[in-house]
Amino acid sequence: MTAAVASPSRDDLMTAEREETKFLLPLGSVALMMDELDQELPSHRFTGEDANSLPDPHHFVTTVYFDTATRAQYHAAVTHVDRNVKVRGKEYYDVHPSLAEVATDPSALLHYQPWLWFELKRREGKKTFKQRVRLPKREVPQFFRRSMAPSALDSAARVAEPDEVTSGRSLALFEQFCRELEEPLIASCIVNYRRLSWQSDDGALRVTLDLNLAFWKPLAELWTLEEPLTPSVLGAPSARLDRAVLEVKSRGEPPAWLERALGRTAAAPSRFSKFVAASRAVYGDA
What we know:
Layout: E1 18-26, H1 30-40, E2 58-67, H2 72-79, E3 83-95, E4 110-112, E5 115-124, E6 127-136, H3 140-144, H4 150-159, H5 167-180, E7 186-199, E8 205-216, H6 231-234, E9 239-240, E10 243-250, H7 256-264, E11 268-270, H8 274-283
Antiparallel strand pairs: 1-6, 1-10, 1-11, 2-3, 2-7, 3-4, 3-5, 5-6, 7-8, 8-9, 8-10
Helix pairs in contact: 1-7, 4-5
């Protein structure tokens, strides 16, 4: 099994610890909020390994959330809004509408890598902490199999590059969390959305805007698909969100200009959770 962990860089300066506040934004205010952010913050684009260098991409995220058969993670997230743990796998892909007129194959409009970034995300009040592990999609069932021996994780950690010193620790935390559960984790629900990002040069402030959120039940062939998990592949969604989700991720107090922009766009502070919303869309509130 091949696993890797992101090395610290400008792209993930804020992963270890940050304050995170969410807002639900009326769709009619999206353009105004984008104008406000464009004036004050640089647009952020991933520049790490296998980054997309083509111009004007539309960035999309498909997140697979994991839960137990009795939905223990969902109930914990609902009961303890400010103190919970989520396990999710994120797949990133880009769409290039500007190439539509010259592309001879629809796949040419997509930029995609066949792996997921798995995250163990802990929330304590307004602060969040993440551990990330990159894993090829086909190896996900083995990764979450409860019969996985510690030696298997040791082997996976050794595959990582020598400078990725956190790999063994991250894998061990995943193993520990899974073993502490009374039931195995399985793919529970899926969220897809378009993401726009802005980030200060020092990484102290990051703002993301998520559009066109929709929720799905996992496909039976989820881990064997060769193509990215786009809405056309996932099929008809269980539900859609009628607002945009704005997240402010900061170290320290947000600037005054952002507070004014939030007021002008009627952005409402919210404890919105993509995982909770997707779970309810797929399974109801039981």
